[in-house]
Every structure is written in structure tokens, then in C-alpha cells.
């Protein structure tokens, strides 16, 4: 979506609660290369396929950072013109990956949630713009505006739900009940923004679609998608891993010398296991306006709605490239837009896999690539899609790549008011506005409990701050207005501009929101400063428990920003909280895009002569 491709790689590190949105969000596995298999088909894209084979084979064979397996498929019209798997599905046994090998496709799964909701609308069971409390009366939150949330808000990342329930999200054994657990936790938290106010990548919204489907059909989400979408699209190698599979060929993560099977228990937001070949069936249905091989799966109007830009009515949207659809990350894919072509894109990342799915309606073309994390799926996909469009004559030439050379220095605006601390969902940033008009950016570092310099930047003629050693550039944007409750607002954002993927288009992201100091912490909060907390209620098979060893989280403060508490660890990342009471801390920022995702409230409660800290539905005890 939003993510960049709204796809963009997090320029800093990402914990588990940030995996389900953007490609390549962290590699936890150490993987080994293998060999490939190839299904031969006559193809109108011999040059593109040859290039793709070379690129992928180099990736799985890279001695510096090998990727165990990658699988790809390409569609033109109603024909799969390329389908091939590379590397291995199992590192210990060196089992060759085939086109039948299933990979966890992460947030590409969100398209199935959007399709499920659209099918419910086709059947007259819901409308996308009716508040979901009408269909799901058990849904409640602490903010009264929760009653305004619609299914469209859920599917366009604009609901205001906190972000991602991290408890038992990724595990090495199936853990049922994730969606119900998420709904129960939402009843104990506030919205992070008003519904429809801004769009910030939000997995919880898609998880609530699971509950909506169950309430309206009596079927579990996985069962509904199987009967309403997978079966009519003949996606026989696709399923939700609700239990340990008894059959089928799968790609297996390999970490710390052990082979696992990854389970994504958030089914609607990221839980489908599939193959690129099966995804070409889905692409045919989409390109056919909802019809696959003569059978209507969803209405043409529903497919068109999914591909319609949902960002036009947002109050806060400082990133003009952010044009998400319903389920789609981008309905005006930036690299394709640079070539004058409309394209739809959805990416996906789990703890161990990275995927990209492109559909180009004008060219009746689609591409899916998926594989073990550790490769740049977006760069690969953009390169192959644009090459194919040039090869079939859809475009005459490739678009020009964006220059990474900094433009000349220029006299910039006053930035005296831009200095200070900026909060986000990753780790606080410090902006120092120097007297000469330059800017120094620092990031808070957990290992040292101090600021680490990112770089020093000078204003340039294009209106952005650059350094000579960083390909990214920065600037400040103030967004002001009146929100839906009639309250005036004004937020200053630190914006970051990057050139992700194959390098054909800029992507602008709000990196952080400037925060003003508050009154000093009261005694109850001051007594917690310096305490550490350990997660107690995740499954012992949860990926962070097994791989990261359940690191403790730290509660501390920033001397430069009185009145806030900083909490997190390498898994959660580090967020600034505003005390709401002596036993509750609230979310402090409204950052659209990807750096305001996965926010939380923290709650403290006595328990057996001790104290527990609850963050989302995760419970921590003092370490």
C-alpha cells in the first residue's frame, strides 16, 4: 500500500510487528543455495525470461547472502508464459524447489480479505461504507469514534486501529484464535486516529475482516476463502495453515541450524501459503473483471473498487505517491507510472519470506515472485515487469532511472522551529537545526541508550536536504486543518525520500512526527524508569521466542523530551508513550504511511504481589 509501492523497505530495522507489510522486512534465516527447475512454455518474453533466470539464479547462488529458494510466474492474457522455481525448499536435505512448492506470501494475502469483503457486498450481506458495528455488534473500543469504522476503512488502512496484534503472529506451530484475541484486545484500547483521517499500514484492520466474515456467514475466514475464491479459481496449491499440513510441498525456513515450518496465524492479513502458478489464476480472475474460466467469482464493480485510489479523501496525506486501493498497496505503481502505465501492486513479508504481486490491466499481464527473505523482491519484480512491457510493445522504452546525485546547494527556508524529537513506531529521531541552515539527524540507539548520528544534510535546489554520502534526502512538512470532530490540528513531519526497487521513481514517507515536551512524569511513572520487562504469554513456538530468545523490554525516558516514556526492545522497536493515567500510557503520534504503524497502549496492573505490563494482548512481567 501505502507501503511504498507503496512499498518501501524500512530504512531502519524492523521487528516482528512490522513484518506483514513491506518486502524484505528482516531476514532471520541463514540459507543455502540450490538448483532450479523450469516448466517450458512458448513465451512472448524470451529476453525478459532469460534476464529473470539469470538474476534469480545469481540471487540463490550469492555466496555472500544466498537465498534458499525463489519461485516466479508470469501471465499474459489467459496463458502462463513462464513458471519456474529456483534453489531448494529444504536446506538440510537440499530438496530442489519446484513450481508446486508453496511459500508463505505474507501480506499479498490481504487481497483475499478485500475479495472476501467484496463478495459479501455482492451477496447483499454488507456494504463497504456501513459501520462494521452494524454487522459485528460485539466489536467495541475505548474511543467512541470506533462506531464510525467501516469495512472500507479496514481495507484501506484508514480505520485508526492501533496496528498489529503481535502475540502469536508468527509461530512454528499453529495457534488458533488470533482474530478473536485481537478483537478482545481492541476493546481495551483507543484509536490512534479518527477513522478516515489518514492512512497508516494496519494489519489489525484486515484481521477484523476475519471476524466480519464469521459473523455474516457463519464460516471461518479460511473456510470462506477456500469455497468462495480458491476453489472457483482452481488454486489447488493454496491454503491457510490452520493446522500442520498432512500433504503438499512447502518451503521451510532454516535458522540456527534447525529447519522449521512457519505458521502465520493472522490469516486475513498475511496467512496464505501459495505458489506463483496459483496466483496467476487469481490474476486471470482479476484481469477478467471477476470471472475465471467462465465462472464469476466476484463482481466487476468489486474488482474496479479494489483498484480505485482510496487516498483522495484523507485529511493527512503528505506522501503523494501513496495511492492504495482496497487490499492493494498501490493502484498507481510508481515505477510503472513513470513509464506511463497503470499497474496494481501488493507485496508481502513474513518472518522468513518476501513476495511481490503485480497486475497490469492495460497489458493483460501479471507477475508473482516469492521466496525466502534476503533478496530485493521489489527491484526484481519491477525490472521484470517493465522489461516485459517493453518487449511486448506496451511501452516504447524504459523510463529514466532516478539520479542519486545531490543537486546544487541552495539557500533554504528557516528551520529553527524544526529542531527537536520526532516520534514514530520504530525509534525516536533527533533533529538538530544548525545555525548555518544545515540539519543533523540522530536516532536513539538501544545498545548505548544514546543518540547515534544518521548524517548531516544541506538544503539543495530541489527543496530537499541531502548529504554527499546518503542516497536518501529529507525535508519538513507541516499538515494543518480541522479533523472530523471539529478540532484544529497541526503536525510537523520529518519526510524521507528514497528510490526503492529498481530505481525508477521516488517514494516519500513521513519518518516521524515532531513532539512537544509535556509536564514532568509523576511519581508512579518515575518509579518505573529503568525497569525491564519479559514477555510471558506468547506460545513457546513463537518465532521471536525461538529465534530472538525473548529479549527483555526496557522502560526509560529521553532527557530531551520531558513527560514521555520510551518503551521497547529489538523485537518491538522503541516507541514514545504519553501517560494517560498512573496505570496507562497512550500512543503519542499520528504518522501516516509505514512509520506510524504498529503502535500500542501500555497498561500496568497488580498481579500476585507483583506488577504486569500489557502491551496489545501481550503480557510482560518485570525482568
From TrEMBL:
PROSITE patterns, alphabetized: TAT
Keywords assigned by UniProt, alphabetized: Membrane
Pfam families: Beta-lactamase (PF00144)
Main location as per UniProt: membrane
InterPro entries: AmpC-like (IPR050491), Beta-lactam-related (IPR001466), Beta-lactam/transpept-like (IPR012338), TAT_signal (IPR006311)
GO cellular component: membrane
Record bears the keyword Membrane: yes
Cellular compartments annotated: Membrane
Domain Beta-lactamase-related, chain residue ranges per copy: 65-388
Listed name of the protein: Beta-lactamase
Amino acid at each position: 500500500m501505502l507501503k511504498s509501492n507503496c512499498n518501501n523497505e524500512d530504512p531502519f530495522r524492523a521487528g516482528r510487528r512490522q513484518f506483514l507489510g513491506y518486502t524484505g522486512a528482516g531476514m532471520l534465516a541463514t540459507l543455502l543455495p540450490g538448483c532450479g527447475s523450469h516448466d517450458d512454455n512458448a513465451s512472448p518474453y524470451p529476453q525478459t525470461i532469460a534476464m529473470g533466470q539469470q538474476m534469480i539464479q545469481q540471487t540463490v547462488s550469492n555466496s555472500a547472502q544466498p537465498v534458499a529458494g525463489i519461485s516466479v510466474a508470469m501471465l499474459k492474457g489467459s496463458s502462463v508464459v513462464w513458471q519456474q522455481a529456483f534453489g531448494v525448499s529444504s536446506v538440510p536435505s537440499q530438496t530442489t524447489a519446484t513450481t508446486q512448492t508453496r511459500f508463505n506470501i505474507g501480506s499479498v494475502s490481504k487481497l483475499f480479505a478485500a475479495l472476501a469483503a467484496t463478495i459479501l457486498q455482492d451477496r447483499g450481506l454488507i456494504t463497504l461504507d456501513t459501520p462494521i458495528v452494524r454487522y459485528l455488534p460485539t466489536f467495541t473500543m475505548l474511543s467512541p469514534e470506533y462506531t464510525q469504522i467501516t469495512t472500507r476503512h479496514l481495507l484501506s488502512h484508514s480505520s485508526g486501529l492501533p496496528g498489529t496484534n503481535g502475540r502469536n503472529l508468527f509461530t512454528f506451530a499453529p495457534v488458533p484464535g488470533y482474530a478473536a484475541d485481537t478483537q478482545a484486545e481492541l476493546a481495551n484500547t483507543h484509536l490512534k486516529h479518527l477513522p478516515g483521517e489518514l492512512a497508516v499500514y494496519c494489519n489489525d484492520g484486515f484481521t477484523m475482516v476475519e471476524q466480519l466474515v464469521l459473523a455474516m456467514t457463519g464460516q471461518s475466514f479460511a473456510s470462506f476463502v477456500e469455497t468462495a475464491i480458491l476453489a472457483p479459481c482452481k488454486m489447488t496449491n493454496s491454503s491457510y495453515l490452520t493446522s500442520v499440513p498432512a500433504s503438499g510441498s512447502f518451503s521451510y525456513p532454516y535458522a540456527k541450524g534447525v529447519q522449521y515450518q512457519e505458521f502465520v496465524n493472522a490469516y486475513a492479513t498475511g496467512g496464505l501459503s501459495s505458489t506463483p502458478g496459483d496466483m496467476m489464476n487469481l490474476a486471470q480472475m482479476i484481469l477478467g473483471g471477476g470471472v475465471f474460466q467462465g465462472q464469476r467469482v466476484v463482481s466487476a464493480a468489486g474488482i474496479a473498487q479494489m483498484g480505485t485510489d482510496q487516498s483522495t479523501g484523507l485529511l493527512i496525506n503528505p506522501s503523494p505517491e501513496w495511492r492504495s486501493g482496497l487490499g492493494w498497496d498501490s493502484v498507481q505503481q510508481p515505477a510503472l507510472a513513470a513509464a506511463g502505465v497503470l499497474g496494481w501492486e501488493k507485496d508481502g513479508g513474513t518472518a522468513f519470506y518476501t513476495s511481490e504481486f503485480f497486475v497490469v490491466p492495460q497489458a493483460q499481464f501479471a507477475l508473482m515472485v516469492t521466496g525466502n527473505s534476503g533478496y530485493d523482491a521489489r527491484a526484481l519484480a519491477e525490472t521484470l515487469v517493465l522489461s516485459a512491457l517493453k518487449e511486448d510493445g506496451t511501452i516504447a522504452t524504459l523510463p529514466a532511472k532516478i539520479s542519486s546525485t545531490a543537486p546544487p546547494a541552495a539557500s533554504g527556508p528557516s528551520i529553527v522551529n524544526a529542531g527537536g524529537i520526532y516520534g514514530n513506531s520504530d525509534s525516536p529521531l533527533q533533529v538538530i537545526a544548525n545555525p548555518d541552515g544545515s540539519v543533523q539527524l540522530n536516532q536513539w540507539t538501544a545498545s548505548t541508550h544514546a543518540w547515534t548520528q544518521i548524517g548531516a544534510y544541506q538544503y539543495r535546489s530541489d527543496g530537499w536536504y541531502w548529504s554527499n554520502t546518503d542516497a536518501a534526502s529529507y525535508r519538513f512538512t507541516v499538515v494543518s486543518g480541522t479533523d472530523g470532530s471539529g478540532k484544529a490540528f497541526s503536525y510537523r513531519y520529518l519526510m524521507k525520500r528514497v528510490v526503492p526497487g529498481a530505481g525508477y521513481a521516488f517514494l516519500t514517507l513521513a519518518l516521524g512526527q515532531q513532539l512537544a515536551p509535556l509536564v514532568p512524569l509523576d511519581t508512579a511513572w518515575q518509579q518505573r524508569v529503568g525497569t525491564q520487562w519479559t514477555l510471558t504469554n506468547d506460545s513457546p513456538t513463537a518465532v521471536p521466542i525461538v529465534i530472538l530468545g525473548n529479549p527483555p523490554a526496557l522502560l526509560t525516558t529521553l532527557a530531551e523530551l520531558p513527560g514521555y516514556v520510551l518503551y521497547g526492545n529489538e523485537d518491538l522497536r522503541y516507541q514514545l508513550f504519553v501517560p494517560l493515567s498512573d496505570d496507562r500510557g497512550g500512543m503519542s503520534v499520528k504518522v501516516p504511511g509505514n512509520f506510524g504503524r504498529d503502535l500500542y497502549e501500555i497498561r500496568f496492573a497488580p498481579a500476585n504481589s507483583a506488577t504486569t505490563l500489557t502491551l496489545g494482548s501481550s503480557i510482560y512481567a518485570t525482568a
